[in-house]
Amino acid sequence: MSVTVKDFYDASRAKIALELVAGSGGMGRVIHEPAINRPGLALAGFFRHFAFRRIQVLGFAENDYLHCMAPERRRRALRALFERRIPCLTVCRNRRVWPEILEFSREFEVPVLRTPLITGAFINAATIMMESLMAPRCSLQGTMIDIMGIGVLMEGRPGIGKSEAALALIERGHSLVADDLTLMRRVDDRTIMGSAAGVTRYHLEIRGLGIIHVPSLFGVASVRNEKALDLIVTLCKMDEFGEGDERVAQRTRDVLGVPVPHLLVPVAPGRDLANVIEVAALNEKLKRLGHDAAKELDDKLVAVMTKGAAHDDI
Fold it and tell me: Residues 2-32: pLDDT tens digits?
């Protein structure tokens, strides 16, 4: 996913206290790598392995090095840095921006940012922000609920009862993450985070009732901004639950390259979906703690049949 300097600036300026000093015409430049680079060797003239695709940072050491240079040498060093098509340059500790930097920012249309953070703190915060902005993303139709620490995505045809089941779960003390459309973001090779679109966050649509604001009715503990996806539950009609499906149809679904446990739950009149989904989430939590009821029963049956076969041989 391509991230521009403007994307980074808009997402980070409040958290990192970024200030745009110069180069507003280059805010569309693309940042190709999430890591942050300190161009100390580049300022010394060594560009063989220069990471020009990253955000460049001038910390205390780099600024002190520039201060020790003769004016003409400093000018040549900074020009060589800006000529490498860097996406942007950030000055830490609210240090004074060298006049040469302002000049080359305008000439090469490279944004220059400034932050009061020390260099290490800025690099840590900016790296986390860039990894979040560049993470693979997708959207899934469904309602996501946090059930005792297990993130459950309920999906199914429109009108099958996802929002009603979500409302019943919220009344039981669980938390809404997203309704109808859930945005997914891969954090690492094992974790998918789900969240709501900004416009629909904290809202739930109930057929016949309309749209409700969940925290106003059930309190602030009834909503969450994001939650890791741990289980997908597909609601389907009883006649769609084919003969080839098991009584408890356990499988996995690939979401952005991460396998997620997947259950098919048939919907029938009078069936308490909220209770079934809650138990499914608790069962998934037990599995993560090393207690798999289906496997334990299978092992017991195998042991009983093996013992019976041994007696028959005697």
Answer: 899 999 999 998 889 999 999 999 999 999 9
Contact 54, 35 (CB under 8 A): yes
Q: Which residues of 151-167 are buried (b: 16+ CB within 10 A; e: fewer)?
A: bbbbbbeeebbbbbbbb
Question: What CATH number does residue 104 fall under?
Answer: 3.40.1390.20
Is the domain of 28 the same as that of 162? no
Token pair 């280059």 is found at 26
Answer yes or no: do 121 and 160 share one domain. no
Domain boundary at 108, 134, 160, which?
A: 134
279 and 210 housed in the same domain = yes
Q: Please, are residues 170 and 218 in contact by the beta-carbon 8 Å criterion? A: yes
Q: What confidence tier does 161 reach under pLDDT thresholds 50, 70, 90? A: confident
Residues 15 and 105 in one domain: yes
Helix (H) or strand (E) holding 46, with range, is none
Q: CA-CA distance, 255 to 273, in Å (whole number)?
A: 24
How far is C-alpha 118 from the geometric centre of its chain's CA atoms? 26
User: CA 274, 186, 253 angle in degrees (round to 5)?
Assistant: 50
Query: The pTM is what?
Result: 0.73
Q: Strands 150-156, 143-147: parallel, antiparallel or unpaired by DSSP? A: antiparallel
Domain total in the chain: 2
Query: How far is 204 from 266, CA to CA, in rounded Å?
Result: 23
Provide, for the chain, the percentages of residues in helix, strand and coil under a 3-state DSSP scheme, each rounded to the nearest 5.
40, 30, 30
Of 17, 5, 9, which Cα lies nearest the Cα of 54? 5
Where helices occur in 31-96 by DSSP H, the ranges are 40-43, 60-68, 71-82
Secondary structure class of 79 (helix, strand, coil): helix
Give the pLDDT of residue 11: 92
Domain range enclosing 160: 137-297
